[in-house]
Predict the structure.
Amino acid sequence: MGARKRITAEKRKEAKKIQYFAKLWDVPTSPRKMRLVADMIRGMEVFRALGILKFSNKEASAKIEKLLRSAIANWEEKNEKKAESGQLYVTSISVDSATMLKRLRPAPQGRGYRVRKRSNHVTLFVDTITKDKQN
């Protein structure tokens, strides 16, 4: 690895130490359905978001709820203190498409219809609101 690549990799690694996030890979749900749930909690206080996700009837909400709990635990681990109500916020949440399973479904007259089973990746960042105001 060259010197310039190593320096940028170290900078990226240092920046990750002060970010609090959780990632969910290869969720077998379409990204569009997952984004509907992600849009509900974007920018919200974490305990309020947990309440919304708990009582949502969408299947994706259970997976995002588990991811949000993981992000809160990561914040608590790095800061060595417990999260309090009104302290943590969902700063950003992104849903990206992942690999697609491509299948063929038999159709009339010898044809085949294409079936695309989509999946996605979810990345969720949490942080305190005071830190965002300073930047």
